[in-house]
Amino acid sequence: MPKRRDQIRMTDSEMRDFIASRKSMQVATLGRDGAPHLTTLWFALVDDRLVFETFSKSQKVRNLERDARIAVLFEDGIEYSELRGVAINGRAELVTDPERVHVLARAFMRRNQPALSVALVDLLSKMLARKRTAVVVHPEKIVSWDHRKLDVPY
Which domain holds residue 101? Predict the structure, then answer.
């Protein structure tokens, strides 16, 4: 009999599709005192990497400057039998070069503000790049679950 954990694990393709279907992700960094700092942010996938951008002076960036460990969570479902999620633990790469931030912010804005024209996205992302940091998540451990795969109620 297969273990329940193995039954509910998502395939790589299922994880990619699930993440791409989400609008936001929960992001945890570690504060100076070691306590988690948890926020919810929009994101983009750039070259199969999770990317978000935020103000360079934000608490998230300050925390990641001290300790690059990061955790992100994507989740869905109300009833137990519908619960799905992907949890990623990894390291954050802080991108501060305005040209690189501009490129990443453009991808981020295209995904999260699809009604904006290409020209406006380019202009806004260039303006954002001056005061913002892009964060690229490099996964080290990924855990997934999809309770819809269970053949019997739990």
Answer: 4-149
